[in-house]
Structure formats: C-alpha cells, structure tokens
Amino acid sequence: MNSQLQELFLAYGATAAAMLAGLLLMRADAHTYLRWPVYSAMAMVLGVVSWNLLRSHVFPSGWSVLHARALYFSALVLYMLVGLALGLLLGRLTGRKKPPVVEEEST
C-alpha cells in the first residue's frame, strides 16, 4: 500500500476515534452516529489544512528535517484535538433532550 494512503488512514482513524469519544461523552443523539464518518472526514480535512498552515507559517523550515518525528506526532495530536473538539461541539448541539423535571409543591 502506498505510504501516503497509510498516513491518510492513520489521520482519519485518529480524528474519527477522538470525535467518537467526544460524541459519546456528550451523549449525542442516535442520528448523529449515522453521520459520524462524514463529520470525521470533514474534521480530518480541517485538521490537515490547519496543520499545513501551522507548519508553513509558524515552525521554522529546518524543523521538518531536524525534528520530523516530533512534527509527525504533533500533527496526530492536532488531528485528535480537532476531532475531539468537533465531537464535543456536535454532541452538545445534537444532545439528547432530558425530560423536564416536575417539582411537586408541598402544602
């Protein structure tokens, strides 16, 4: 298998697992889990684009050679953070509605 495809699957897996954790933590609605693969693909694209912008504008150019392993794991952490943040947000937006609590008046 091509190494770029392996890296793409790894990035998708990290993003999707973190997003699933966020959805589970927020107890999202059942319909959200059906759309979860598409949402995690969009989160991965957002993570990849933001990582490319960070790498090209924030980090020195020599780091890609000297600290390649650290940058690789930093990218994976960024993908997981983006997935978790979007999972928490999506879970919050589509969370299950709690039934209203009826308080009884004591006389």
Secondary structure: elements and pairs:
Blueprint: H1 3-25, H2 30-57, H3 63-66, H4 68-93
Notes on the structure:
The chain has 107 residues and is mainly α. It is built from four helices and no strands. It has helices spanning 3-25, 30-57, 63-66, 68-93.
How far apart the termini lie comes to 74 Å
Order of helices and strands: HHHH
Structural class: mainly alpha
- How many DSSP-defined strands? 0
Task: Tell me the helix content.
Answer: over 70%
Biggest β-sheet description = none
- How many individual helices? 4
Query: Which consecutive residue ranges, at least 5 long each, have pLDDT under 50?
Result: none
**Beta-strand content estimate:** under 5%
C-alpha Rg (nearest Å): 19 Å
Number of domains: 1
Q: What's the overall average pLDDT, rounded?
A: 86
Overall body shape: elongated
Supply the key terms.
4 helices; mainly alpha; single chain; 107 residues; elongated
Please give a quick description of this structure.
The chain is an all-alpha fold and 107 residues long.
